[in-house]
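Bench log, entry 3. Co-assembly request; chain sequences pasted below exactly as received.
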Amino acid sequence: MINIKGFFTKWRVAFAALIASVAVVLMPQSSTAEYADVVINNYADAAGMRPAVFPHWYHRIRFRCKVCHADLGFKFKAGGNKITMAKIIDGQFCGACHNGEISWSVENCGMCHSGIPGTPTSIHGSTIQRLVAPTYKALPKDGQPAPSDAPADAAPADAAPAEAAPAKAKKK
Amino acid sequence: MKKINFATIVAAGLVCFAAGALAATEGATKDSMQLKPVKGEEGKVSAANTFNRLLKKDKARNLPPPEDGIHDADNEGTHVLQPPLVAFEGLPKTDFGNYVDWVQSLQKGFLNPRYDRVDPTVEPLVMDLDIVREVKASVPDVVFPHKPHTQWLHCSNCHPAIFIPQKNANQINMSAILLGQKCGVCHGKVSFPITTLSCKKCHSKPKPDDWKPPLSSASVKNPWR
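Structure output for the full assembly:
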């Protein structure tokens, strides 16, 4: 009465079809970069170099945030520091350590300039990138503007690429 | 006696399950056909009715640089870079972000990153002060612990640019955090991200037993209630 074999094959077909369709949906997204990797590409592409990739995980094993973000003055904004090679060889930003003393020196271009050409400036794996819909905005309360309207923390226009991902999602 | 009862229940359960599964099989055959557009008199059935239409899940964790989607595998330097998993071996784990519990790694002494660029002996300026922020919603109240923050960061990283150093002087809500402001300047970017699994890291102080969520006035006033 109960056809066990047929039962399993039918389920298997259904399951395979489901997996296949889910795989197709997932395929084009490629946000598999390590959490907090920063691609910096304000100028690199334009100068014919691959974008620079800064791995937070690698550096925070060796240095606390304070070293870079307080002592060396890195602002909390991907692309917001306008890093150039001129500044690096003067000992600023990456050059404070990648100087042949604390770490390997700048002639190792390909160690930093390792990004896929055309990748925009962005921090990867961020919560905002992973949202299904553009960020939720709170209702204005007691006449106070919603936090998103506050200009204080608004991104400077030149650092726009960091917001490129959610903006794209909106257009879809 | 007990044993027989149990077996009977299990057997009955299995029969029910089989019957249910049989019914489901009929459904499943139709479902699997629905995944492909079917041409009938009424035209095409949408192929869009798939499961997990918007679910974003990590396909793999901590991929090595040449496979991570941002590093160029054609660049020789890429292959010299360290794969994260090699470095994370033995560190306490979490279920989000880098999948490493950075706070425990530090507090248990697995890692001791430098607090100074050149001098490995400089000790961080740690302050142990918890700030509790009551939350109107039903989620547990937020405890902001200065200790793990000052182990990594300097006071000037937060004060005064992100937070006025005075209890409750700052307006904070989830919307701002998700937009990358307040706690969201770091959380969701470099420090642990905002996901269902991490809510209770911040929302860590349970509400009192007699706590009830406030009612929306629109519903309280509703005459048809």
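Confidence is low (pLDDT under 50) at residues 6-34 of chain B. Chain B has two domains: 1-48, 91-205.
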